[in-house]
Amino acid sequence: MALLDIQHLTVGYGGLPILHGVTLRVEPQEMVVIVGPNGAGKSTLLKTIAGLLRPQEGTLRFNGQDLTRLRPHRMVHAGVCYVPQVENVFPSLSVDDNLAMGAFVRTGDIRAHKDAMYSLFPDLRDKRRLRAGALSGGQRQMVAMARALMLHPTLLLLDEPTAGLSPLMVGIMLEKLRDIQRTGVALLIVEQNARQALQRAQRGYVLAMGQNRYEDTGPALLAHPDMGALFLGNA
Ligand SMILES: Nc1ncnc2c1ncn2[C@@H]1O[C@H](COP(=O)(O)OP(=O)(O)OP(=O)(O)O)[C@@H](O)[C@H]1O
Ligand SMILES: [Mg+2]
User: Fold this and answer.
1) To the nearest whole percent, how much of the chain has pLDDT over 90?
2) Does the CB atom of residue 91 touch ligand 1 within 6 A?
3) Which residue pairs, CB below 8 angstroms and at least 24 apart, start in 104-113?
4) Is 80 within the bounds of a domain?
5) Looking at the predicted structure, is the pLDDT value of residue 197 above 60?
6) The domain spanning residue 222 has which CATH number?
7) How many angstroms does the Cα of residue 85 sit away from the middle of ligand 2?
8) With CB atoms counted within 10 Å of each terminal CB, which end of the chain scores lower, N or C?
């Protein structure tokens, strides 16, 4: 059974559909990448899964349950955490307090969880008293991910986690995502760095104009003859 199973999802902002019958699945502990041109609806899809937008049509099943119209906090409780494309940290709070905010729905001692995050992202440990807004782009992305992971998600939704990073940092960040996956978390990632992401992902989807365009394993998409055009979105 798929962990996340989306069927024929139609959703928009204020009535006008942006996604038209999108279908997608994520298996347990799988890394799945969504690529496609600007405006394809990639962020809209993640926002819908996170419970921020209400579908007009279609179904969203998670762990076998129908969660189609669940509110965001209920999705978090169900095990789905979302790192948005922009403004995904509290810039005026310290790194440490950002992590604590991530754990706001948890009870008990969060120190051990923070410590696990600093083991996963060692660069952040030295910086834990600094304001998140004072960090580099890559470090801010790591804070955003660590904050989401404080909630122990089963599925982590990441919207362009490597945007604006140097080529070296893109590779480092994608390897971090593999590390997270190895801890047993499934990942659904929107990525502009399509090649590098698909090299590491089990499967990928190409979205264009709010619709499924292609779907295949990472290697098969990489080998697709329209590969270049695919990711520019004019295939
Ligand atoms: N809050 C909003 N209200 C109305 N329309 C919106 C809103 N957010 C996005 N849209 C529109 O929905 C369409 C899809 O946007 P979306 O942000 O999902 O695309 P995307 O694939 O994530 O693009 P990008 O690669 O630029 O991040 C675009 O036409 C956009 O203008
Ligand atoms: Mg987007």
Assistant:
1) 81
2) no
3) 105/73, 105/76, 105/77, 105/151, 106/150, 106/151, 106/152, 110/150, 113/150, 113/152
4) yes
5) yes
6) 3.40.50.300
7) 6
8) N
